[in-house]
Amino acid sequence: MIRSLPVILMVLAAATTATAQQPLPLIDSAKPLGGWTFDNGKEFPGAVGKLELQTEDAPTLVLHGDFSQGGMYVQAARRLAEIPLESISFDIKVPSGVDNVTSRLIDGTGQCHQLNIRLNDKGGWQTYVFPVARYFASLEAGTPMDIVTRYEKWSGANDGRWHQPAKLFVILAGKEAMSEGSIAIRNVRATEPPPKVDVATTIPLSDFTAGENGGWQYNPGSEFPGAAGSLSVIEGRRESESALRLEVDFTEGGRYVGVRKRFPEIDVKQTESIDLWVRSDKVKQFSIRLVDSTNQTHQRHGIAMKADGQWQSLSIDPQKIAGGEHWGGAKDGRWHGGVQLVEIMLNPRSASEPMRLDLANIQMQATVEGEVSGQAWREAFDGNATQPWQIEGDVSQKDQLTLTRTLETIQSSTSATSAKFPVRPGSWELAYRVQSKLHSPDNSFHGAVELQVFNRGGELLETLPLGIGFGNQGWSTKRQLVKLPAEASAAQWHVQLNKTYGTFQVDDLSAARLVVQPSSSVVESIRIASEAIGNLFYPGDAVAFEVKVPTNKPLPQADRRLGLEVRDYRGEVVLTLEEVPLVEVPGANQREFQAAVQLDASPLNVGQFYELHVSVPQGEGNPVTELSGFAILPEAISKQYAPEEIPFTIRNWDSRVNDYFYLADRLGLRMMGVWGGWSQKPPYKPHLPGLETVQKLNAKWITGTPASSVEREGFKTVSEESLREGMTNFLEAYADEGLAMIAMGNEPHGKGQVVLDNVRAYKTVYEAVKAFDPKIHVIGTSVEPNDEYFRAGYQNYLDSYDFHIYEHYTKVRRTMHEYRELMQKYDAVKPIHSTELGLNSQGQARLSVSIELIKKCTVFFAEGGETVSWFTIMYPDKKGNARGQFGDAHCVFDCKFNNYNPRLDAITYYHMINSLAAKKFVSEKQHPDGTQEFLFEDEQKRCLMVLWNDEGTKTAEVSVPPNTAIDSIRIDGQHNQLRFDRSSALISVSPEPVLLLFERP
Fold it and tell me: What is the pTM of this model?
C-alpha cells in the first residue's frame, strides 16, 4: 500500500522507558547507524541506497536513495520496546518543493495509521512535532487538526483510533523526496503521556438524584426470617437535603436487617474512610460490612454511637474493619484498594426494642489516580510571558520574579500579580521555585505566594495560600495540590512581602489541572438537535437547540449543567454563554437529561459557519464535550432558476434516504441523483424511490442504470434483454416526471473482455434510450481517460463523458486535457461532466476539504466542464459511531445520531453553488506572484470572481468596475462589502479561496 509520496515516516514507539514526560532520544550515536537499519523497499524492486550516521554536531541520519532502476521507497528503521506515546518530534531536511511528510504509526493492536503531515515547501531544516494523542482525539471527535493532509489506516483494530503502546518507528522516502539524492533527520524524540498522580478526593455515596432511596437497597436478612423492617427517605441534616431511615422490629424473630449499596463504577486506588452522619434515639451500636476491590467481604460488629436523637459524625476506616470476620476474594483478612459495597446493619443487640437509624451525607474519602491535563499555565521569566505582571513597589521580572524592599521603604506595598488564566473546577497541581533573603525575626516576616480564584463574572471566590519564604533560604521547589471550587473560571498568582524587607525571588511557576477520569463515562453521549433542516436557520428564525444527555449512571447534582461556547471555523470563541441547567427527563426509557439553548443571533453573521460547543462536567475528570455546526442562511438563490440552469448535481452514499433530498435542496442543489432501476426478471418492473420528494422540492433528477451491475459482475444477473426492455419500461413510467439526465455507469475496472462486456451493456442501454426519445441526455460511465474504452467504441454510446477525481485539484484539468486528446484521436468531441469530485477526507481538517471543494469546482468549469457533483451529502449514523470514519469523512454534513448539522464544507458548498448560479466561465488570469483569478458572468452581467494563491498570503490587484459594490465571501461564508473608486481592486488572497460578487454596468 506504499503510495508515491515524497517522504513516508513510520512512527511507533520508544526503545526504553524514559523519565516521565522527558523526551526519549531515538538516535543513539553509540550504536551502529544510531540503532537504525536500512531497507530498499524490496516489495518494489529496483531502488538502491544506504543509511549513514553523521555525528558532527547533533547525531544525524542521512538516508540516500536512487530510483533510476525502479522501486518505490527506501527506509531507515528501528525496532523499539513498546511504550505509550504522547508525541513524537524530529528535525527533517528535505528538498525545496517537498511539502509533506507521510508518517505511519503502528499502534498496540498492529493497526497502521498513515498520515501525510504538512510541511512548508521551502526546503532545508525544519522542526515538526506530531501530538499523537491530541491528533487521534481530534480525529475521533470529527475535528481533525489541520496538520494532516491525508489519512488512511489498515490492519489491527482497523478502527481509526490510537491504541497504546506504540511499536515501531520507520522513515521512508520516495522519488520526489530523493530528488537531491538524500534526506536527513535529527533530534528524533518520543514523549510519553503525563505521569499518574495520586489525588485525594471525596466521593458522595448518598446521591438521591439516583432515584428512589438514592440507589441504596433494603436487605431484610431473609436467611433469618422474622424481622419486620423498611427503608425510606426523610429530610436530612439541612434544608433541601435528604437522608435514609432504616427501621426494624425483631419482636417476631430475625437476626439482622441492613441498607446496602454497590459501587462497581467507582474506580479508586484506595478507600481511606467511609464518612457519614448518624442519628437515633435508641440505637447504641450497629454492624458494617465492606467489600474490597478483590471482592473480599469484611464484617465488624459493635460500631458504637450515641443514642441521643442528635446527628453525629462517624468515620469508618476500612483498614480497621479488616482483620476480623471475612470471606471471599483474597481471603486474607487484609483490606485491598477501593470499596465495592457498603452495608450498614442493625441487629437485636443494637437496641432492646423496635428501633430506627437515620443516615445522612455518606461519602468516601479516597485516593484516585489522576494525570496532568493539557490545561496548564507556566511562567519561567525567560522573555516569553504572554502578559506582563501588575507590580507594586520594587519588582523585577528579569530571569526571576524578584521583590525587593529596604528598611526605609518597609511601609510601601511590594507585590506582583500575574495576568488571569482560565481554570476549571477540580484538583490542580501548583508548583514554583522560591528563594528568600529576608529579615525574619519569626516566620510572620515573610514573602507569600498565593493563588486568587475568580468566577465567570470576575468576582474573587477565594485566595488560596500556597507557601511562604522567610529568612535566608536557598532555591527550593514547592508543589501543592489544591481543589478549585465549582464556580472557578479564572485564577492568578499573587506574590507579596509581609512585614519584612530584603529580597524574595520566585521562578518557574506552573499550574496544571489533574484529571481523574471515571472508570466508565457517566455521560453516554451528548445529542444536539434543532428544528432547522441541517441546522441551517433562515434569517429571522430563532437560533434554538435542544440538547439531550443520556447517561450511563446518575449524573451528580453538581454536574447537571451545560457549558456553552460558539466558535468560528478557526476555533476562535465568538460567544461565551452562561451555563444552562440540565433537567432530568421523567419517564424516559434511559436515564436522560436535557436543556434548551437559544442563542442571541444579533452578533452572528448571516451566511457564516459557526460551531456550538457544549460540555458536561464529570467531577474531577475531563468534561464530556460535543459540537454541532450551524449557520444562518437565506434561501438558496439557485431556487430562482430552473434546475437545469444550475450546473451542480449531487449523488449520495444512498440516494433512497429521504433526508438526503432535503439537505441537498437546502444547499441549493436542483438536480438530484436517485437510485432508479428495474427488476431484472420479466416484466422488468421499474422503480424510482425518492421521486415524490424530488418533485415536492421542484427539482429534477438524474438516475443511474443497471449497466453498473455489468461493470461489477458482468452479465451474471443482467441480460441485454433486461437492459433494453427495462430501460424502455423505466422511461415509459418516469421520463415525463422530471428526468434531467441518465448516468450510464460508475467507476468500471478491468481490461480486455471486461471492457467489451461493459461497452455491450452501454450500447444496449443507450440505443433503448434514444429509441424512446433522442433528446434524453446520457452521461457515459465515470472512467478515467482510457484508450481501451475508446478503442472498444464506448464514445458512440454516450452524449457526454464523466470522470471522478479525489486527488489534488490540478488533476482535474490534467484529466480533462487527457480526455480531449482522446476525443480528438477518435473524432468524438463531446461535453464533459463529473458526477463525483471529492477528496479523500478522512483525517483531514474540514478547512482542507473546503479549500479543495472551491478549487476543484472552479477549475472544472474553467476547463469547460458542464455539471459537477461534490461527493457527498450524508449517510445516516443512528448509533453515532461513524464520525471520522472513511465514509462519514466524505459527508459535508455531520450525521451523528442523525442530527444532521453542517461542517465547514457544507457552508462552502452552499456559497459556491449560489455564487456561481447560472454564471458561465469568461476568463482566467495567472498573476506573476502565483495568484489565480477566474471570472464567471451571467446574462445580466452579474459576475463571480474566484481568487486564491497556493504559495501564501499576497495582495492581488484585480480588475473590477469602479464605484461598484463588491460582496467578498471568505471560505467560511463571512461576507464583507467592498467598494473601490478605481477600475482595479487590491484584494488579500491566500491558499483559502475568496469569492467576489459584483455587477458590471
Answer: 0.77
